[in-house]
């Protein structure tokens, strides 16, 4: 993984499919001091509470055969909707705070969704993207992990 420099005043978005943490670096590139700016959390209920009874059936137009229709992944849909809301909120925060540098930290699946929905205004200030699930860790643990990536330089 290439070295990452998170300069003083840069913002760090750490998120997954149900939790998003926005930090501002009050320290420097080698000694991070992340200050919490925004928090978003959306617990997702179990699949049995999210979906319908069972997958539907499709009748063939010719003959008497039937086949099952694949049921949607309700958790995946809920996570995608949450990430879309996070990106919308992020755009507002970027505009209001005049942010110049942003580091994005998310697990690979969430990062894939985010890359598809990030607007150009956010991509222009994106300094680095780290594919790592750190959203459930404490702030000192996040600082330690990101500082270790900076030490590689």
Structural class: alpha/beta
Instruction: Assign the CATH architecture.
Output: 2-Layer Sandwich
CATH class: Alpha Beta
First-to-last CA distance? 10 Å
What is the typical, i.e. mean, pLDDT?
86
Relevant CATH superfamily: eRF1 domain 2
Write the layout of secondary structure elements.
Layout (H helix, E strand, L loop, with lengths): L10 E5 L3 E7 L8 E8 L5 H4 L6 E3 L6 E3 L5 H24 L4 E5 L1 H10 L2 H6 E6 L7 H13 L2
Parallel strand pairs: 1-6, 6-7
Antiparallel strand pairs: 1-2, 2-3, 4-5
Describe, in plain words, how this protein is organized in 3D.
The chain is of the alpha/beta class and 153 residues long. The protein has one domain: Nucleotidyltransferase, domain 5. It has five helices and seven strands, in the order βββαββαβααβα. The strands form two sheets. It has a five-stranded mixed β-sheet, sandwiched between helices. Helix 2 (74-97) packs across helix 3. The protein is elongated, with a radius of gyration of 20 Å.
What structural keywords apply?
153 residues; Nucleotidyltransferase, domain 5; two-stranded antiparallel sheet; 5-stranded mixed β-sheet; alpha/beta
Produce a short descriptive summary.
The chain is of the alpha/beta class. It has one domain (11-42, 73-151): 2-Layer Sandwich (Nucleotidyltransferase, domain 5), CATH 3.30.420.60. It contains five helices and seven strands, in the order E-E-E-H-E-E-H-E-H-H-E-H.
